[in-house]
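Same chain as my last thread, 239 residues:
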Amino acid sequence: MLSDSGSAWSRTEFEARLREQGKAYHIHHPFNVMLNTGKATPEQIRGWVANRFSYQIAIPVKDAAVMSNCPDREIRRGWIQRMLDHDGYEIGGVKDEGGIEAWIRLGIACGLTREEITDGRHIIPAVQFAVDAYINFARQRPWQESVCSSLTELFAPEIHKQRLATWPEHYPWIESTGLQYFRNRVTQARRDVEQGLEVTLGYFNTKPLQLRALDILKFKLDVLWAMNDAMATRYGVNT
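reply #2:
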């Protein structure tokens, strides 16, 4: 166990310790390994997409909670982009249907109907419980802690790149256009990381706060891992 006594880590060391938590990212979960190595059945892929929809629609709700707790106008002006990325927008003649719609199209490309994706009929209770825990955290905790919890984005570009690299080969029955969500997030996640890191490295500037940040990031990693545990239990894992 790390001691909370002593001097704060430098920003460089603190960031390194945050990034080190990536070893617990759900990219390493057996269910995700199965998906990315071509061992999943169509049913398992559809189950994953249908259940992850509960998380996709929670992201802008979480971000709205961050903004509602944040008194800093500049932070809110930057953070609102995340909601637009997922919910979509039509402003001044410019239209973007957003990440939630892109995820629905992924589900359709995998053989699900729009209705069974959006009505949540396939969502496992344990998955929804984990997602709700994340939303409640963002609503109840200081906004800086909610920002810190978003830093699983540090590890997200790699998982999206893996899917883009392996899914077309392993699952040619999935229409390529259905993978657009992953293409979008490779870039968006990098931008979001810069913003989230700047807040986290600046605010968590004492040893106790830095240790708190590591605990927060672990909590979010546990949320994602628990979702995969639930899906592995429901759909099985092929080795």
